Structures
1.
Amino acid sequence: MSTTRQLRAGIYCRVSTTGQTAENQLLALRSFATARGWTVTEFVDQGQSGAKERRPALDALLGAVRARRVDVVTCVKLDRLARSVHHLVAMVREFEALSVDLVVLDQAIDTTTPSGRLLFHVLASVAEFERDLIRDRVLAGLRRARAQGIRLGRPKVHVDVGRLLALRTERKSIRAIAKALGISATVVAKTLRASASNPPSVLSSPGRPSTRQAVSG
């Protein structure tokens, strides 16, 4: 005679300030899990903002999910768990790939049921639609900027190549040259590489004004 395997639940709670308590969330989740005969591991984030994608207890919960120590994740509300629709959809996709279900008490979400699984397909479609809208807005903004003659991309940094090379011949470090010229070390390194590939005639020489060139910053 076969026996039903007891599911292992990871119950997750979060409160935003240290002055709040997660006890009300825990009581509801413990009661629900007990009624279903689940074994429980508790993950509680105290004083953690919902805007954070990374939280200590949430990270521990996801680690348990990936280690296959949890069969179902449960919380009281979606905003306790995820910081955005995209974050939620990404999390649920991972749960689905690992055959882990999600139960949200106050919003009657339960992916152990067909209707619960359907809801997350709808959420995934909404998230994809939102991404498409954002991409379309960005592209439209770029086209409008080009039509108005607005130059896009990083601004050009004007470099005194002659002085830069003179400092380099004094065995100054790239960091020291950058500080002396008021530019980034990346621009200094890029200019040195470009100068090394140019013939000597284009570089500054005694009696000639310092060559200046524009380098993308």
2.
Amino acid sequence: MTSASGDSRHPRARKGIIEVARSAWDDLGDLIHAELALLRAEISEKLTLAAWSASLIGTGVVLLLATLVLLLQAAIGALVALGLSWVAAVLIVAAIASLIGGSLVWTGINNLARRLTPTKTIAQIQKDARTLTGAK
């Protein structure tokens, strides 16, 4: 009878292991699904920020271009009034405007690129990986 009762317990133990494994597999699937949903939400948030930023930049550029042209013309006029030739005044003003404009564009691109990285999702995936592997 001992062997009969032992045999009847063995299928239950195997069924319990299978249920635990299936539950763990389902939990892993749920975790992956949740991580992907977080990634989609964060990317959507970042793309909305990028679109909004691009529209602000575009509008600002259009409005500032007219002002910039007038200011550059005034600077050229001032340099000519100080005795420089018209060509020298234009070259000086163009060089200064190019340096300032290039630095502004470079700074804007760097700021935008840094903010588009899905940092929350990366941190969560790293945390989940540490939890699954038992690493601290």
3.
Amino acid sequence: MLNDALLQAAGSPAASLAVATQPAATSGAGSGQSFLGLVNEALQNVSAVQSAATTAEAGYAASVPGATLGKALVASDRAEVAWNATVAVRNEVVSAYQSIMNMQF
């Protein structure tokens, strides 16, 4: 539910994050993919988006043929959306953990 809300709020720039979160929505308990594996894959995708943004910005700054300001800005925005979504998911996990720890049995 949180992933869907983040993707709807972010729109198409979060396509790389959607790829990272898609297995979580389709995999069942018997799929064999661990939560840690999903988190690791998502973080690697965010890192790849950030690297692409850095490369696009450096290409524009160096006047590489085909590198435009628009491409650099779009790549930078995608990296920002991916990072903000990652932080939002982290905050939700921390909040859920704190709620569980505060439960009285």
